[in-house]
Design goal:
There is one protein chain. By secondary structure, the chain is mostly helical. It has a 3-stranded mixed beta sheet. Strand 1 and strand 2 form a beta hairpin. Helix 4 packs antiparallel against helix 5. It is elongated and about 75 Å long. The two termini are 17 Å apart.
Length: 239
């Protein structure tokens, strides 16, 4: 698979979700045309691609980059907050507790800590993807303007960054899938322990588990979704 095909690969990974969310924000500010999956303005009457200054294209990508960074770091930090909370409660559960909620909390705390680091990696990969897509859009812009030599240079930069992104996303994507499966295992085991827990013996740890479980599930869903179903924006796909 070519780097151009790989720059947005990764299925429903958080890196892709971050990019889709940023693209939705950019699309909301005008009627766009898609160039290799990105945005250039079109004439509302003729539908022709309008000439755009390079700095305007770069400015749009900088805005998207800030959106990706903000959303990604919020998710990563929330994982770390949940991690700290789980570990703290695992140490606070009385030794008299009749179930193994302490082990469940500690395990989920570790998983959330690692997931926070993985989300940080996704942010870095998403930034690289955006850089590659910026080169791709500028290359198309130059070709439309007949500046083939500059377009070739941008294509070369695109291929280099796209290749780096497609390689860099492999490790965090694999870790992400593994962690999700471990989450499901620990959540299932924790549910069994919470149902069997004696509130007096466990200091109310059963109720705390359900609260943290809800927060954890919501964060996992939000970090894997752009927030709403992605619909292709109006415009023209450039090939």
């Amino acid at each position: 698979r070519s780097p151009r095909a790989c720059v947005l690969c990764g299925g429903r990974s958080p890196a892709r979700a971050m990019l889709v969310g940023a693209m939705q924000s950019a699309v909301a500010h005008g009627s766009p045309a898609l160039v290799h999956g990105e945005v250039l303005p079109v004439d509302p009457v003729t539908g022709a691609v309008q000439r755009t200054e390079t700095r305007a294209v770069l400015s749009r990508f900088r805005s998207m980059s800030k959106s990706v960074l903000f959303s990604g770091m919020c998710s990563a930090n929330f994982y770390l907050v949940i991690c700290t909370t789980y570990v703290w409660f695992s140490l606070a559960i009385p030794e008299t507790c009749n179930v193994r909620l302490s082990d469940v909390f500690l395990g989920l705390g570790i998983l959330n800590g690692v997931m926070g680091l993985v989300m940080g990696c996704f942010v870095c990969v998403a930034q690289t993807m955006l850089g590659a897509m910026a080169h791709s859009v500028i290359a198309e812009k130059y070709r439309l303007e007949g500046r083939d030599e500059e377009a070739d240079s941008q294509d070369s930069d695109y291929e280099e960054e796209a290749r780096s992104a497609s390689q860099a996303i492999l490790v965090p994507s694999c870790l992400y899938v593994i962690l999700l499966n471990l989450f499901v295992i620990f959540w299932g085991f924790g549910c069994v322990q919470a149902v069997q827990a004696d509130d007096n013996m466990c200091g109310g740890a059963g109720f705390i588990f359900w609260v943290l479980l809800l927060m954890n599930v919501i964060n996992c869903c939000v970090s894997s979704s752009p927030g709403s179903g992605y619909q292709a924006p109006p415009g023209r796909v450039m090939r």
